[in-house]
Specification:
Structural class: mainly beta
Radius of gyration: 14 Å
Helix content: under 10%
Number of strands: 3
Order of helices and strands: EEE
Strand content: over 45%
Largest sheet: 3 strands, antiparallel
Strand order of the largest sheet: 1-2-3
Distance between the termini: 47 Å
C-alpha cells in the first residue's frame, strides 16, 4: 500500500418535473477545487 489518498468530490443534481439527473464531480482539492473528472453520472427520463 502506498498510503492514504483522499478524494474530494461534489455531487450535482438536476431535478426537473419529468426527469432526474446527477453527477459526482471529482475535484483537485485542496489546491483550488477545480473539477478534474466525472467518475459517475446518471439520468432518468420516463418519456
Amino acid at each position: 500500500m502506498t498510503g492514504n489518498r483522499h478524494s474530494y468530490w461534489r455531487l450535482g443534481a438536476d431535478l426537473v418535473v419529468n426527469s432526474l439527473g446527477w453527477a459526482a464531480i471529482e475535484l483537485d482539492a485542496p489546491t483550488d477545487c477545480k473539477p478534474i473528472g466525472i467518475p459517475a453520472w446518471a439520468s432518468s427520463n420516463p418519456h
